[in-house]
Amino acid sequence: MTAMEETGATSRPTPGATSSGSLMPVPAFDPADSGPPCAYARLRTEQPVVKALMPNGETGWLISRHEDVRAAFADPRLTRPLLSAWPPREDADAPPPCLPTFLEMTGEHHTRVRRAVSPLFTRRRLEFMAPRIRAMAEELIDTMVRGSADRTGDLVASFTEPLPLRVLCETAGLPHEDRDLYLPHTLTLLSAAGLPMEEILAALYALQDYASGLIDRREKESGEGREDYVSLLLAESRREGGDLTRDDVVSFVVTMLMAGYKTNIQHTANALLALLTHPGQLRRLRDEPDGIDTAVEELLRHVPLMNAINVLVALEDFTLHGQRIRAGDAVLPVIASANRDPDAFPDPDRLDLTRSPNAHTAFGYGPHYCTGAHLTRLQLSVALQVLLEKLPDLELAEPADSLPWDETTPLRAPARLPVRW
């Protein structure tokens, strides 16, 4: 019996449902901490399914346990709504929804598009990117070192901010010089759960228009010999009997911009902060570089890649841990909480770079498991390798508790990482 089956049974005592007149807010983040809010530890034990008030005024069922979060992402009774159409609007002048991102595609459409895109993101297919990512990372570190007279620098400004964008542009084929056109809209969409629908729609329409214009330009080029993903997918959309349409390629560009930029910037900064505040583990990783892949999995578990709210919508009524979820209700599986569940991970709040097995949910689970998971792993792995090789004596130059934080999105990360080497 899975955690999402039609049952009220639970292995731990659960208090009665929270009344609609006293909804708890979605737990607030703890100051200067990239991890999940501490409140989830209590919720996992006492209220693993609880109705909560979201920042935008909507309500949803928070799901905080590892088993339940995995089951939710795989449950066909739950679907991810279009960002441009949720919360639903019934007024006659509601704007038309935008194209679905890859996370929002369903049924045959999702199957067809994933069949075409997934081969581009396999570990084997991405091997060609490793030396390119290494060259980018080495160039950024060399530039930081050359520009420092006292062997100090800021890893955020010099390394974690520019690297993910360069990797994204190189891989997907996005023009780096257009960054001021598309990046502001991606930042808006990462905060969508707390923004008015008008702002969300404006950002989505702008990204969709940008992507469509980019593809217009590519269609006028020969594209011969180009290996970037936009060019390859555009060629597939032109192939007779191919799996993709032009709109699918537009959706790909929008999806990559939403998922492949700011999330990787902030996760890389948080991962480096975690290592720098655990010098013993950092030293062990430096002395045993063969453990880098296992370390990357632990950093993905320990440091949330997605600390924002994931919204699913129930397609039918069902009961979970004694709570009756109705068709149309929002269900909010909390990935960051699932990755700290002691029932799934011994001593879950401890960073253990040798942890194995490590069944984290950083990339989701089920049919919509993140297509770009291997690219994210590769980027973090290469970044760590280059830092450890080039700056073996790397350490924080200021106390960790004095660092300023970038809280412009729910992902949250240090705004500066002052280091010495």
From TrEMBL:
Region span, Disordered: 1-30
Segments of skewed composition (Polar residues): 8-22
Pfam families, sorted: p450 (PF00067)
Taxonomic superkingdom: Bacteria
Database matches in PANTHER family: CYTOCHROME P450 YJIB-RELATED (PTHR46696:SF1), P450, PUTATIVE (EUROFUNG)-RELATED (PTHR46696)
Homology family: Belongs to the cytochrome P450 family.
Name this polypeptide is given: Cytochrome P450
Organism: Streptomyces roseoverticillatus
